[in-house]
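lol forgot to send this yesterday, sorry. struct tokens for the thing we talked abt
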């Protein structure tokens, strides 16, 4: 059971969203547009390919939906952290008895709460408008989605540590991270289509195992437990490393006084 201090981080995010239409709207607006765009694209591809051939809805639209889930989780951690960055609230938070581990857990809990809203909206759109049902993937999709969630948490914590170390101006280096990863992760195509050096990078990315495994499931193949274990292991390792990096940066910020003199004008 989360401690009261962990729940306080979540409660603060809920208070910020209460009465703020822009914050609530941003939880689902852009990913909903993304889902509609890809939904009509997959419908068009199905008409071009003709009946009796590959169904692009679970292959492409499902992949986009899962990638949006990953982005939503990552950005959920980041946005909860950025609220404290933008309001220069760190001294207030860490003047309380809260521990750094509790603060990080609160960020993750806030990400879960906000991600549920966005994911519920895009799943509803995908099902009602384009006939994409989560049941297509079966119960074995759950471990793969868990890997995406864990990797999203890892990147969210890592991104927060970068901003804590270099200041608010560095957030512009954080937003493109999902776009930079996606070509290597094989979200919309098999990893085998990539050149050799990109395939080498893909082996170190948990999402590449997720999307390869789900494509195999849709095609009626067996689950690769080895690939599932590799993806889960990498995601777990990255989460531990990201948290260790976050703690190290936090201690550096305390030791140097950086936490008290944030400046949006400087990266040093």
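and heres what i got for the seq, position by position
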């Amino acid at each position: 059971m989360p401690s009261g201090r962990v729940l306080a981080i979540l409660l603060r995010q809920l208070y910020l969203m209460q009465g703020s239409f822009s914050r609530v709207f941003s939880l689902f607006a852009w990913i909903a547009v993304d889902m509609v765009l890809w939904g009509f694209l997959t419908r068009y591809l199905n008409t071009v390919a003709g009946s009796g051939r590959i169904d692009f809805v679970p292959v492409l639209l499902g992949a986009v939906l899962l990638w949006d889930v990953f982005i939503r989780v990552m950005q959920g951690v980041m946005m909860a952290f950025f609220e404290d960055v933008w309001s220069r609230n760190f001294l207030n938070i860490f003047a309380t008895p809260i521990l750094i581990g509790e603060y990080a857990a609160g960020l993750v809990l806030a990400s879960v709460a906000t991600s549920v809203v966005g994911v519920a909206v895009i799943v509803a759109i995908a099902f009602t408008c384009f006939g994409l049902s989560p049941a297509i993937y079966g119960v074995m999709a759950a471990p793969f989605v868990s890997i995406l969630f864990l990797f999203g948490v890892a990147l969210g914590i890592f991104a927060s540590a970068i901003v804590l170390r270099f200041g608010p101006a560095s957030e512009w280096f954080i937003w493109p991270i999902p776009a930079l990863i996606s070509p290597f992760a094989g979200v919309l195509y098999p990893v085998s289509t990539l050149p050799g050096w990109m395939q080498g990078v893909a082996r170190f990315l948990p999402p590449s195992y997720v999307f390869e495994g789900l494509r195999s499931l849709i095609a009626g193949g067996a689950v690769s437990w080895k690939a599932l274990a590799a993806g889960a292991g990498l995601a777990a390792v990255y989460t531990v490393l990201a948290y260790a990096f976050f703690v190290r940066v936090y201690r550096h910020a305390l030791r140097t006084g950086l936490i008290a003199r944030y400046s949006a004008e400087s990266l040093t």
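Residues 4-260 form one domain. anyway ping me if u want another try
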